[in-house]
Amino acid sequence: MKDILHTLNVAQRKAVEQLDGPVMVLAGPGTGKTQVLAARIAHILQSTDVPPYAILALTFTESAAANMRERVVSLIGKEGYYVTIATFHSFCADVIRTHPEYFAIDRKSEPLGELEKYDLFQRLIDTTPLKVLKSLNQRYFYIDEIISSISQIKREGFLPDDFEKIIHAEFADAKIPEKKLAQAKFLAQKQKNEELLLLYKAYTNELSAIKRYDFDDMITLVAEAFKKHENLLLDYQETLHYFLVDEYQDTNSAQNTVVDLLASYWGEKANVFVVGDPHQSIFRFQGASVENTLQFAQKYPQSLTIKLEEVYRCTQTICDAAVAVIKNNTLTDIPLLKSARGDGEPISIVELPTQTHELFYVADVIKALIAGGTKPEDIAILYRKNAEVQEVRDILDKWGIAYEVDGGEDILSTEPIQQFLRFLHLIADIKINREDDTMFEVMSYSWVPVDKMLVMKAARAAGRAKMSLFTLIQSGYATFAKHHQTSEVTPIEFRQLEDFSEQLVAWAAEDANMPFTEWFEHVLKASGFLPWILQHPSKGELLININSLYREVKAMNASSHRMKLSDFILAIDTIMLHGIRIFAEDLNVKKRCSAPFYSA
After folding, report:
1. Mean pLDDT per 10-residue run, the chain (600 residues)?
2. Of 457, 432, 447, 462, which Cα lies nearest the Cα of 500?
């Protein structure tokens, strides 16, 4: 441990060695805060008789928790595995699973998925008397805003009764504007909040009736349980003696409540150690508040505040630029960041006429850097929105540049997954005798084992016969030969189209007699899609995507045991309609350079 302490600078070491009482560390990016958290945990275990399970370290993402645990284990060995290092949500989910008697939900219940949430809110919008939040032409026009608003209210720790009081306080004594337009806006805003309250109450009641909870509820449920059930709170207070919170500037009211309740046993002298930077609230969309950092000193007047201002990640030029960006922030003092890596290269700002020019410029610069000896893993591309990633991927593919998308991507935006979903759509349509032009598109996919030229000839014959391609194939070779008007295709050659058509019908029939997950896996293999993936140059990435889709299928089937193909298609349509993303599991698999994947 002494060797570890010697690697820390003065401020870092002070933070690690101050074991007793509340401590707030203000740490900018790249100042070694994760190392400080890990070193502090190691120091607690080696300097006191506190067992590992008496330490609770909370952060925001699973990757951050895994990174912290990895560092702790590297410092003190296997003892580090017994420290509770978790995200806020995973810690609260564990409280719910371990003490189901305190929560009015089914013991085997899982958090409501995004799709289930949209389905439930659609039903609530249909059955709740709404005027403002239900558009005449599009009933679900405001569904995204409704779900987002209720989620925000929950994250700030407000239950329906609390929200009702807020609405009353906001509008009861407010003066109604005299001008008609302003008056109309005031009354519409009032009614919008009242209707949102109706939906919030209905949503809460529905979750209670089905004994389920949603992602935001996990923290609020635990906070309320700690408040109502003294024995539950005491159980955790007697076990946990040290509390560490990463990215404290991002904590919302509900998360703060959980930490405050756990630490309340020791009052103002609680061993609460928080690390944050009021200048980088990246999770503000989660209801996070910069004021959390400012209020810590008020909550714990005897707390020690330590600033980490020596930056190891970037050069002084970057530090100065960062400070310049936030210099007009009047809430807190501007940090004086000092880089341990020298001045570095100047920042280049390039202005280009179009998005296309930008993409080509980025690819050209990356090519030049790699040619000059820079490792590809040392180059990063940042983009503002997830929707922009496909354009970046396309240009890197065309230029033959290997890359990986950090944090996973929406698998529903990838062409192979879209092809397989269209294939399933075709089977569902055949089941209800509603096939259309999808048959030709699906049979043109490279992984479908039929001759593409033969498909083209059959499609032309179907056009002449004024019937669908599926109907033509089902009608047999004689009908095809009549409208194809040449004898260049033999009955034996045509048989492969009939075999594929019959297989589609068989799969449609099997859907009724098999559990959907079993049916999905069977079709995945028998259709040729999975064998095609296993032979593809980018099979690693494609396998991750299809496995992520299969994971979603299993989750859907688990919540609806009678699920069939039609239910799955409806679910996927709902997901696509509302822009719900299914993220690929981030397994650090790099994208191999290969020819771009084009649809037929």
Report:
1. 78 94 89 92 93 95 90 91 94 92 79 86 93 85 92 87 92 83 88 95 91 87 94 96 92 90 94 83 47 79 90 85 74 67 88 92 94 91 78 87 75 91 94 81 94 93 92 93 85 94 95 94 95 89 90 85 92 86 64 34
2. 447
**CB neighbour burial string for 287-319, b if at least 16 within 10 angstroms, e if fewer:** bbbbebbeebeebbeebbebbbebbeebbbbbb
Per residue in 433-485, pLDDT (tens digit) is 876 678 999 999 999 999 999 999 999 999 999 999 999 999 999 999 999 87
The 8-class DSSP code of residue 596 comes to P
CA of 111: how far to CAs of 105, 217, 376, in Å? Answer: 10, 8, 39
Domain ranges of the chain: 2-97+219-308, 114-212, 355-403, 412-577
What is the pTM (predicted TM-score) of this model? Answer: 0.71
**Token pair 């019959």 is at which residue?**
502
CATH class of 2-97+219-308: alpha beta
How many angstroms separate the CA atoms of 273 and 242, rounded? 8
57 sits in which H/E element: strand 55-59
Residues 6+ apart with CB under 8 A from 494: 454, 458, 477, 480
Q: What share of the chain is helix, strand, coil (3-state, %, to 5)?
A: 60, 5, 35
Nearest to 39 by CA among 12, 10, 20, 66: 12
- Determine the Cα–Cα distance for residues 361 and 32; give it in Å rounded to an integer: 33
Q: What is the pLDDT of residues 376-421, one digit of tens each?
A: 888 999 887 766 777 888 899 888 888 877 756 788 888 999 999 9
CATH superfamily of 412-577: PCRA; domain 4 (1.10.486.10)
Identify residue 371 by its one-letter amino acid code. A
